[in-house]
Amino acid sequence: MSKRQFEVKITGLDDFGRGICKTDGPTYFIPGLLVGEKAIVESTFKFGKLSDIKVIKRLSDSPYRVSPKCPYYPRCGGCQLLHLKYPRQLEYKRNKVQNLIHKFAKLDIKVEDTIPSVPNFEFRNKVQKPVRRVNGKLELGFYKTDSHELVPVKKCLMEMPLSQRISLEIQKLLIKYHYEPYDEDKGTGIIRHILIKISKSYNEALVTIVSTTDKIKGRLQFAKELIEKVKEVKGVVLNINPRHTNVILGERNIPIYGYTHIKDKIFDNDFLVSSKSFYQTNPYQIENLYGTAIKKAGLKATDVVLDAYCGTGTIGISLAKKVKQVIGVELEKDAVKDAIRNAKINDLNNITFINRDCTEYMMKSQKTFDVIIMDPPRKGSTPEFLEAVNHISPRTVVYISCEPNTLARDLKYLLNKYRVVSVTPVDMFPNTSSVETIAVLQRK
């Protein structure tokens, strides 16, 4: 192992918000530094490969640097840009999307300004907190970047205040009931994660305890006591995950006490949210995200719309009153059940949900679609799905993406038949390097 200290000057930020420094040798990516800043850094090489690089002393400050309000930053891996002024975060995200689309899709389209989040603190309606022992004490918190080392966090500036209150009560009750945290290395203990979901519209919460086993003594009393202490908690669910995996939730849910769903509102429509439901994590931006996508889709009253990767139907239901018919297709069975319930509670009769692989459905369907709205997972879509889009050939394709790398990769599969007419970043995740993006394509 060898170490070396040297001076660097940062010329840009990479896709993860790290400062870029190009030298005669390797290019370095250094967390915590901003464009134009100089610093003394120390690199560590093991077996001839860079294993770590850290800032020893910052020699100059960017005019866009701010002092982070979070006492856990940057040890906690949840945020990457808390040291950068918020307007510059928005500019960084616009540039990131534009550069990736140029790099992978070979397009020089002008990306619109990033739609800001108001507020950009205390916005998260969903948090997943590992439970571990740190220095012998039961703690809830978040992992350090690229590790499973827990940083105990009492108050996260990104989560809603109600979520913070619930976390503190859960920690007290876990200690009171002698529930042992899970130890990944030893495979001992039972409590792995706490999942909290908040309804901004109705001020309700759903708590899911992720455990290795369903044999938890006193779990009913635990749940009742939590609900008694925090009245906004409407239900406690036990999720069983005995596997040695990084996946947080297991396959089986057991209701402990109270409700298994809470309700939230988007555009005057109510949506049921369960432990496994996908629901956007920034409720202050959901209507900006969906509203922008719907407006740019150019919908007509005669349109038939395909809501691909529809999940629990939030997008399709939000636009249903503007079109003739919506068909949502989703592979996850439980999500389709929730989508059907969501359509029913909103008295919508022109929307249908189908539990099926969307690529297979599109290739075999004889139906004509005017608009396809797709919101795939972070890994993006597949060449087969995009070929099926070309096969159906709708007038408009609206691609909503939480990962601009895979969006840019996927766009090139559609460019023979479609032209990109707009790309709009939406800041769903302030103070991080992540960005949501809406790309609208029109058939040539």
Characterise the protein shown here.
Helix 5 links the parallel strand 16 and strand 17. The chain is globular, with a radius of gyration of 23 Å. Helix 1 runs parallel beside helix 9 and helix 7 runs parallel beside helix 8. With 444 residues, it is of the alpha+beta class.
Count of individual beta strands? 22
Q: Any idea what the shape is?
A: globular
Proportion of beta-strand residues: 25-35%
In oligomeric terms, what are we looking at?
Answer: single chain
Strand arrangement in the largest pleated sheet: 9-8-7-10-11-12-13
Radius of gyration: 23 Å
Helix content: 10-25%
Mean pLDDT: 95
| Count of helical stretches | 9
Low-confidence stretches: none
**Structural class by sheet pairing and helices:** alpha+beta
The profile of the biggest β sheet is:
7 strands, mixed
Spatial separation of the terminal alpha carbons: 57 Å
